[in-house]
Amino acid sequence: MDNLWEKFDIKIALMIFSAYFAIDAMYALYTFSVVKKKPLTSSSIGALMHFLLAFGVINYVQNYLYIIPLAMGSWVGTFIIVSREKRKEKYS
Q1: How confident is the model over 8-20, as a mean pLDDT?
Q2: Residues 6 or more apart from 83 whose CB is under 8 A from it?
């Protein structure tokens, strides 16, 4: 366990947080674009998400402590996009 904390790099953690923030924000947008039947938007977002997902997987396989910033980024990304969509519906 100590060795994992020694190998934990805050810069990598911030990159993972940012990547998963983007992934979950894109996933929410992906879902909205699928529902609206926008094939080009949906497929483009899906491809980019998988690219970023690979970055996270590569890092947390090497050190499972990176799951913490991954989960936090995921939560924040989804929360912001869904809150924004909720506000847009409210004012429509």
Answers
A1: 93
A2: none
Which tokens is 47 given?
Answer: 């491809």
pTM for this prediction: 0.78
Only one residue has tokens 């997902």, namely: 53
Decide if 31 contacts 49 (C-beta within 8 A). Answer: no
The least confident of 30-44, 55-69, 72-86 is: 55-69
- CA dist 30 and 22 (Å) reads 12
Residue 18 has pLDDT above 90, yes or no: yes
Q: Under 8 Å CB-to-CB from 50, ≥6 apart: which residues?
A: none
DSSP of 3-49, one letter per residue?
Answer: HHHHH--HHHHHHHHHHHHHHHHHHHHHHHHHHTT-HHHHHHHHHHH
